[in-house]
Amino acid sequence: MNSSQKQPNNSKASKKTDRAKPATGEHYKKAPRRDGSDARKPFSKTKPAKPPQKTDANQPAEGERIQKVLARGGVGSRREIERWIEEGRVKLNGVDVTPGTRLKPGDFLQINGRVVHWEKFGKQPTRVLLYHKPTGEVVTRRDPEGRPVIFSQLPELAVGRWIAVGRLDINTSGLLLVTNNGELANRLMHPSTSVEREYAVRILGEVSDATMERLKQGVELEDGKAKFDEIHFAGGEGANKWYHVIVTEGRNRLVRRLWESQEVTVSRLIRLRYGPVVLPERLKTQAFYELTDKELDLLFEFAGMAKEERAAAVEPATKVYKPRRH
């Protein structure tokens, strides 16, 4: 499935576009892409994540390592679970375990003294949602300041929990992937995969060619050198200009900090793409789209994971869902 990104519109001819319309009333026009892809579909042509490697993450839980089973069930990432094991918080049949311990049918598993019914994780089908996050929401389960959180807008799971693939800060809108498969989330977030993230950025003022070149070559930030892998002018009138940028790192506020290092003010930031997955054209803010089985297979292939064996879906996965109301 192919898609491209939309660009800010500086003409009256493109008022037909209605995706990701900024709150200011500005419109976007389609951005021509080298691969000729189409932004109306949730997948684009992009290279697979590296290193592509097969995994048995979707096999029955018998004989699998504890951290792999729990990650698949959404209990936590494998890295988190390994830390819990090292801290002595995980017990199997009443005994502390090591990271290499494997689960077998009938094993009694506890985390922090609480029983974990891990057997059901082997039957948990993978789900992936494309959520259109608005500004003002935070990517956390509970916020001490009482701000709205993205998880309150998602459907409830009978088993496991939703895991956000990466984060967007409170002032950034756009595409956010969530899944109940911890192994898939880990593959898509791991630094070694260098997954591309594409953003539309609105800035104030002009940007010189020298500044553009510095941002592509790399600048020193407080946590090390960083750069834009690609940067393209995307139009704009008056003081506001739009650019499309691509980064392959998930560092906190990286896109904003790169622009700020050149004393450029970012007034709006929208994530358009994460790896091969593109924000659907007509997906409104606070709504989400669930990947079909075919799209899930493509995402598993991109992540270097074996495809899942699934039963027939009861409900069409292409439905666009609106948020839950409270």
Main features:
24% strand, alpha+beta, four-stranded antiparallel β-sheet, 15% helix, ten-stranded mixed β-sheet, 20 strands
Give average pLDDT, whole number. 80
The strand count comes to 20
Report the biggest beta sheet as strand number plus sense, adding barrel if it closes.
Answer: 10 strands, mixed
Annotation field: number of helices: 6
Distance between the termini: 35 Å
Question: Could you estimate the helical fraction of the residues in percent?
Answer: 10-25%
Helix/strand/pairing class, anyone? alpha+beta
Strand percent estimate: 15-25%
Order of helices and strands: EEEHHEEEEEEEEHEHEEEEHEEEHE
pLDDT < 50 stretches: 1-8, 10-39, 52-61, 313-319
Give the CA-based shape: elongated
Radius of gyration: 21 Å
Secondary structure: elements and pairs:
Layout: E1 6-8, E2 28-30, E3 64-65, H1 66-72, H2 78-86, E4 90-92, E5 95-96, E6 102-103, E7 109-111, E8 114-116, E9 128-133, E10 163-165, E11 173-179, H3 182-189, E12 197-204, H4 209-217, E13 219-221, E14 224-226, E15 230-233, E16 240-247, H5 254-260, E17 266-274, E18 277-278, E19 288-290, H6 293-302, E20 320-321
Parallel strand pairs: 11-17
Antiparallel strand pairs: 1-2, 3-6, 4-5, 4-7, 7-8, 9-11, 9-19, 10-11, 12-16, 12-17, 13-14, 15-16, 17-18, 19-20
Describe the structure.
The protein has 326 residues and is α+β, with helices and mostly antiparallel strands. Helix 1 (66-72) crosses helix 2 (78-86). Strands 9, 10, 11, 12, 15, 16, 17, 18, 19 and 20 form a ten-stranded mixed beta sheet that branches. A four-stranded antiparallel beta sheet has the order 5-4-7-8. A two-stranded antiparallel sheet has the order 1-2. The longest helix has 10 residues, at 293-302. Helices cover 15% and strands 24% of the residues. It has six helices and 20 strands. The protein is elongated and about 65 Å long.
